[in-house]
Fold this sequence. Notes:
By secondary structure, the protein is mainly β. The chain folds into 7 domains: 42-133, Immunoglobulin-like (Sandwich); 144-229, Immunoglobulins (Immunoglobulin-like, Sandwich); 242-328, Immunoglobulin-like (Sandwich); 340-439, Immunoglobulin-like, CATH 2.60.40.10; 452-545, Sandwich (Immunoglobulin-like), CATH 2.60.40.10; 552-658, Immunoglobulin-like (Sandwich), CATH 2.60.40; 663-798, Sandwich (Immunoglobulin-like). The protein is built from 1 helix and 56 strands. Strands 48, 49, 51, 53, 55 and 56 form a 6-stranded mixed beta sheet that branches. Strands 8, 10, 13, 14 and 15 form a 5-stranded mixed beta sheet that branches. The longest helix is centred in the N-terminal third of the chain and has 20 residues, at 2-21.
Amino acid sequence: MKKLFGAIAIVGLSLTMVACGSGSDNKDSTQTTEQKPTAVVELQSPAESAFSLKGGAVKVTLNAEASTSAEGTDLIYQWQLIERPATSTANITNTNTITTDFTADLPGNYVVSLIVNDGANNSEAARITLSATSPYPVAITDSVHSVNLGTNSVGLDGSQSVNPAGGTDSLLYQWTLMEKPTDSAGYLNNAEQSQSTLFVDLAGDYTLQLVVTHNDVSSEPKQVVVSVSEGNAPPVAKADDITIILGEEAILDASASIDPEGEPLQYRWQWPSRSATDPEDVPLPDITGTKTAVVRFTPQAVASYKLILFVFDGTRKSEEKEVTVTVKKDPNATSNAPPIGKLLATGYYPSNSIGEQEVGLRAEFNFTGYDPEGEPLQIIAATLIEKPQGSIAELVDIGSWKPMGKKIQKLDIAGSYLVRMVVSDGENQISVDASMQAKIGNVNGQPATGGVDAQSKSVLVGDALVFDASSSDPNDDPLTFHWQLTDKPDGSNATIEPVIEPQSQEYRRAKVLTDVPGSYTAQLIVEDDRGLFAKAYAQDSGLAKFTNTAPEIRSVVWARSWGRLNPGQDFYQILPCMSLLHRPVTVDADGDEVFTHEELISTPAGGEFTSNPSEADCPNTRGQVFTKPGKYTFRYSATDLIDDAPQYDFVVDVDPLTEATGVRLRSINEDNESLWYPLPYENIPPFANDFSASSKPYLEEGYISWSLTATDADYTIENLQVRHINGGLASLTPRFENLKNEQVIAKGKSVAFKTILPVVACIRNEEASEGFHFSFNIKEIPEITFVYETWRTANKSSLFYDWSECAAE
Length: 809
C-alpha cells in the first residue's frame, strides 16, 4: 500500500510542476540527477591497518558491508589489489563477494581498491592502504631451477631480498650449498654476494639456502633446489602451503608447475599415507580433483594436513612435493564442539592384540581421537567399572609419554574388563567405553601390512610392473592380501592382478600390465584369517615409458668421510693396510634408479681387499684395506633393470711400504687399533645434527688420538689452525695437543697428538650444537693436508638437567 501511495504522489507532483512551468525550457528544474552507489571498505582483521609480520605472514580480511546504493538495490562487488611490495605473491582470494582477504607476505604497502555496482552505475573507487612491517630482513630468490646436464652453471639471484621495516643499511648475503648428488664436485662462486653462481657436474638435485642479514639480524633461510637432468629434464611440481580457518574449504593450486620442455602435465595429489586417521587421529577428508591442477577438500578439525603432489610430462615424473594446509581455529566462533573419538583396548608386547589379551599380560586403554577446534585433550576420569570376580587388577597411568592412556599392568583372571573414560577439551567432555577380554590362549594379534616395493621403478609400456609385499602376522596366521590400483595414468585401462607365491600360496605379489606411459600406484592392506585388518595401508609407484636410455658408468672415484675425490683425482700415495673405499659414478638420462655391482677380478698373490685383514698382514688394523702391494682390478656393472651399462674396470696400484714417501696418518682407538688414512685427509660433515648426537651434556673434554709418521725424510708441520665453527668463541675453541707450527718430524719417527674438544657446559643456540675445526699441512709437500671437523650435539627433547640454557650475555 505504501508503494502505491508513493507512486500517486510522484505523478501528482510531476503534473503540478509541468503546469507551473508554462512550457519553459528550464530542464534543471524538472529532472533529478542519478546518484551513484557508495563503496566503503572496512578492515576486519588485523585490528589496525599497520601491522607486523614478526610472527610470519598475516591474513588481511576486508568487508564492504557499509557500502550503499541510492535505491537500496543489491550491489555487485569488484575488489582489486592494486599495489603490493615487489616480489610479493599476495592476491585477493575472492574478487566479487562482500568480504575478501589476502595474505601479506612481505613488508611494505598493500593497496586494495573496491568498486560497487548497483545494476546501473559504478561507484567511485574506495581504497584502503595497509602497511606491513617486519623486524627481520626477507630472503627472496627463485626456489626451483631445472636444467639439462651439459649446463655448467646456474645463476642465482637474491638481489630482490628486502630490508626489515625502516632498514636502510645494505644487506649481507650468504649462499650455502647444503646437499648435492653423490659424487658431485659442484660448488658455489660468490657465495657472499647477492648474485651467486652454482657450478654443476652431475645429474641430480642440488639443495641450497640463502640467508640475508641486516645489522646482525638474519632472515629465515630460503631454500633453493636446482635439478640437473640428462636428456629430457623432469617437470617441477609447484604449489604453495596455505592457512585457512576451520570450516573453510582448502583449495590448492599446482598450475604453476612447469616442464622445462613445455610439455603438457598430468597432476596427481594424494595423502602421504593411508592410515585410518591422520594427522593426530583426525579423519582424512575426501579430495576433489586429485588428477587436476586444483584440488579441494574441507578439513574437519584444526590440524596440519599434508598432501603429496607430483606431475608427469609424458616421459618424466617430477619429485614428489609435500604441500601443507594449516587449519586454524575460527577466532569469531561462538560455539565449541566436543571431542570426537573412541577408547581402544589393546594388548601390549608381545601380544599386540585388539580387544583381547593373554591372562597375565598387560592391557592398555588409549583414547584415539581429536578435538575439532584443536584444543588440548585431557582425561578427567577413568574407571575400571567391570572386572571378573576375584580380580584385584587396577587401572593406572601408563606414563607421561601416553597422557591419553591408562593400563592394567596384569590381567589376573580370565574374563571381561570394562573401562570408562571421560575426556575433556576444557569446555566439553565425552564418555567412552572399551572392553578387554582376558583369555587363556588363542589371542589374535593385529597383522601388519609392512611395505610395498616395486621390483623395478621403471618399465617399458606393455611390460608389467611387479609389486612385492613384506607383510607379517604376530600369530603367523594366514593372510589375505587386498591389492588395489589406486592411481594410473590418464587414459589407462590397466588393472592390478594378484600373483600367488608358490611356497606360501599367498598373494604377496601383484602385477600391473602397463598400457600407457605414466605412474601406476599399487596399494595393499592385509587381513588375517579371523577378519582383523592391519592398521594401515602400504603403497608404492612405478613408471612406464615408451623408450629407455641405458645407464652409464662415468668413472670410479675414491670415497672418504662426507665427500669424495673428483674423477681422475688420486690420493698422494696408496699403501697396504690403508683404509680406502671407492664407488662408481653412474648417470641415467631417464632418471631411473640404477643398481650397481662390484667384483674384484684380480689381485696380487695373496692380496685381499677386506675389512678383516690378518694380523700378519695388517696388525692392529681396522677398516676395509688392501693387504698386499700390487695391482688390484675391480669390475663394475650397472643396470636400470631395463638395460645394462657397459662394464667398467677400475685398477688400483698399491705401493709397497718400502717405497712409502711423505707422512703416514692414523687414528688410534682405546683398543690400540689403527685406522690408516690416505692423504690428503678430509672429514667435513655437512650438517651438525646428522652425527655425534648425544642426550647428555659434554661436561668433560673430548679427544681423538692420532699418529703422524715421517717415512723417507724430515717433514714440517705448518698452517696449523683451530677454531670454533659456529661463533668463533674463545671459550669454545678446540686445540691440538703435542702438535704445533714448525714442528719437525724426523725421518722414521712418529709424533702422537690429539685433537681436543672443549667442554660444552650449556645450550647456546637453537640447534644445541657446537662445531670445531682442526687443520694443518706439510711444508715440504703442500698437497698433503689434514682437515678434521666435528660437532658436539644434543637432542633437546632428552637433555639431562645439568645441560641448561646458557645465561644471557
